[in-house]
Specification:
Blueprint (H helix, E strand, L loop, with lengths): L3 E3 L7 H10 L4 E5 H5 L5 H10 L3 E8 L7 H21 L3 E5 L10 H17 L3 E5 L10 H11 L4 E6 H5 L16 E5 L10 H7 L11 H9 L14 H5 L2 H19 L12 E8 L3 H10 L3 E6 L4 E6 L2 E6 L10 E8 L3 H10 L17 E4 L5 E5 L13 E2 L12 E9 L4 H10 L4 E2 L3 E5 L2 E9 L6 E6 L11 E6 L3 H10 L9 H11 L3 H10 L2 E5 L2 E7 L6 E9 L9 H12 L10
Helix pairs in contact: 3-4, 4-5, 5-6, 9-11, 11-14
């Protein structure tokens, strides 16, 4: 029998995956859509590469949320499908995987599902394509292979069959015996996988994945309240089994554990540390660099002007609108390149913010000050980033900007308004610790942790925000033990018009990150932008996303040292462009090679 492997099962860029599959002796591959979108090769070039390697393209996948949806939604799905089928014809693939719907508007109506899948198959047949319908184990209404087959059978279309996936069948404990009742010619594809049984055994969960209170999803505070009502007066003791913590340094882990208990006690009213003082904005981001010239060139192209020089330190202040970047050349090692070293946070009460941080065991940083320098309180985050509490422009409070000589009027911010968010890549063992720190010490709201697909693995990310979105910090997990990869960080700059800002940057000599053309072909299918609009995005490397609140356009500079910049236009949108992250990460790997670029946004 022929053998095949899905590209999603392998790490690296698409060309690396295809070469690996061929060398291992596979006859064909399933092309996963994200791999194609992130590839700089055209569909025709991918087809030719597979032919050269002796690989057939057995399947293109996935197509999601197609069936049992309202008529207007299904019309959009057919438009999307036509685009996919045209792409598949260019690719040379003749079978598409359609997963059972998880769409919130999908209804439990087998007749409607069968009718819509039949209409999809009609369209597919025009292109010589077969549709393989698969029941996801977590499908909204269809989650068993027997149910999926009954819908395919009811549709009765020659271009519609079923896909059987061993994981989706066995993970639900479904008896596979009924597969024998399906005609072999209607099984259009078979996918095989194994997994521990069950996927998360309680014992394994307990022995390997526990974490400190506030870092997981359990209501530990609610449980503790019940215990305290009994009159219990014994210790609060942590018992945490965790593979990551077993490999981390004991000192920082113990601090993290103690901090979690302070926050837990605060939550139940058993302790009263100083109240959190939520930051109200970003005063500055500080870059440490051995050579100010490359960073200055990028900032200049972005429209920043050198607004001042520190009176006693080799630090320059660059400003554009309300966005301020400090460029510090003191003590930077050339091997480290440019990196993000510190963040200034606007605070309504800097002293109270520092007291809160100190009570929660954040290390207070000594600061070398010359006579007349503004007294700024600073603490260290778990990854070593310095956090300064500032009160820029507040009457009666020393203003840190007074430390800089020759400070002209602020630039008008024609393109850049302010810092939208800052992305910090965490050491592998600091991710949960950092999330708890920024939530507990700074009072930021932690969003759900998400997985981000990198060409060389699946990464975790988590965003934390202030109540009004004035402060946004995105955390990403960095290298695992033994991985000496250099990880990039970035600063996102808010603009009213990302197209104008990107053009101005490029015309000033700046270099934007190029995005593969396949991304824009897919964008046209998903969102129907006007042709001239799409061409502009393609020209400037602008990515697009939308949510229930609005739209998001963003693009990236090339990296300088370990830092790059992002220009973002946020029109009501509340996210970070995370659906675009796999494409952006792949583009950066292509452009820069060895650096790793994980951040929590797109």
């Amino acid at each position: 029998m022929r053998t095949s492997i899905a590209t999603v099962s392998l790490s690296g860029a698409l060309t690396e995956k295809l070469t690996a599959a061929s060398r291992a002796g596979f006859d064909g591959v399933e092309i996963f859509e994200n791999d194609l979108l992130a590839s700089p090769l055209t569909p025709e070039e991918i087809r030719a590469r597979c032919a050269d390697l002796g690989l057939g393209i057995e399947l293109y996948q996935p197509m999601r949320d197609v069936e049992a949806v309202p008529a207007d939604e299904f019309a959009r799905n057919l438009r999307r499908a036509r685009h996919k089928f045209e792409l598949m014809r260019r690719l040379g693939a003749d079978t598409v995987l359609v997963c059972s719907s998880v769409h919130p508007l999908a209804v439990d109506d087998d007749a409607l599902a069968a009718d819509q899948l039949s209409r999809l198959a009609d369209l597919a047949q025009e292109f010589g394509i077969k549709v393989a319908y698969e029941a996801l184990a977590w499908g909204r209404h269809v989650h068993t292979y027997t149910h999926a087959w009954s819908i395919v059978e009811a549709a009765g279309h020659p271009a519609l069959g079923t896909c059987l996936d061993s994981f989706h069948i066995l993970s639900r404990g479904t008896d596979p015996k009924a597969i024998e009742d399906i005609p072999g010619e209607k099984i259009f594809f078979l996918q095989l996988a194994d997994a521990p049984l069950p996927a998360m055994d309680v014992l394994q969960w307990s022995r390997h994945h526990r974490c400190f209170p506030g870092q997981g999803g359990f209501d530990v505070a609610g449980l503790l309240r019940h215990v305290l009502r009994t009159g219990y007066d014994g210790p609060l003791s942590l018992e945490v089994f965790n593979d990551v913590l077993r490999q981390a340094e004991a000192g920082p882990t113990a601090v993290d554990a103690r901090r979690s208990l302070i926050l837990l006690e605060e939550a139940v009213g058993a302790a009263t540390p100083p109240e959190p003082v939520v930051p109200t904005g970003v005063a500055f981001a500080e870059l440490l660099t051995p050579d100010a010239e490359p960073v200055g060139a990028v900032l200049g192209a972005l429209g920043f002007t050198r607004a001042g020089r520190h009176r006693s330190k080799p630090v320059d202040l660059w400003q554009h609108g309300e966005a301020r970047i400090l460029v510090n050349t003191a003590g930077a090692a050339r091997r480290d390149g440019s990196r993000l070293a510190a963040i200034g946070l606007e605070s309504p009460d800097p002293a109270a913010a520092a007291r809160r941080a100190e009570a929660l065991l954040a290390p207070v940083l000594p600061r070398r000050r010359a006579p007349g320098d503004a007294p700024l309180d600073a603490v260290a985050a778990p990854d070593g980033t310095e956090l300064f509490f500032c009160a820029t422009g507040h009457p009666g409070t020393p203003d840190w900007r007074g430390d800089f000589a020759d400070l002209p009027a602020s630039p008008d911010g024609a393109h850049v308004r302010r810092i939208d968010h800052i992305a910090l890549t965490q050491p592998w063992h600091h991710f949960d610790q950092a999330a708890l720190f920024h939530r507990g010490v700074l009072g930021l709201h932690a969003q759900e942790s998400v997985d981000v697909a990198d060409p060389y693995g699946l990464m975790r990310s988590r965003a934390l925000t202030g109540a009004d979105g004035a402060v946004r910090i995105a955390l990403g997990v960095g290298a695992a033990p033994g991985d000496d990869t250099v990880h990039a960080q970035h600063i996102a700059l808010a603009t009213h018009d990302v197209v104008a800002a990107a053009r101005a940057f490029r015309e000033a000599g700046g270099r934007l990150l190029p995005i593969p053309a396949n991304y824009y072909d897919d964008l046209a299918a998903r969102y129907e932008p006007a042709d001239d609009e799409l061409e502009t995005y393609r020209e400037l490397g602008i990515l697009y996303d939308r949510d229930a609140h609005g739209e998001f356009l963003h693009c990236y500079t090339l990296t300088v040292g370990r830092v790059f910049f992002e220009l973002v236009q946020r029109d009501g949108y509340r996210g970070y462009g995370a659906p675009n992250a796999p494409v952006r990460l792949a583009a950066q790997h292509t452009a820069h090679g060895a650096l790793t670029y994980l951040t929590a946004d797109g």
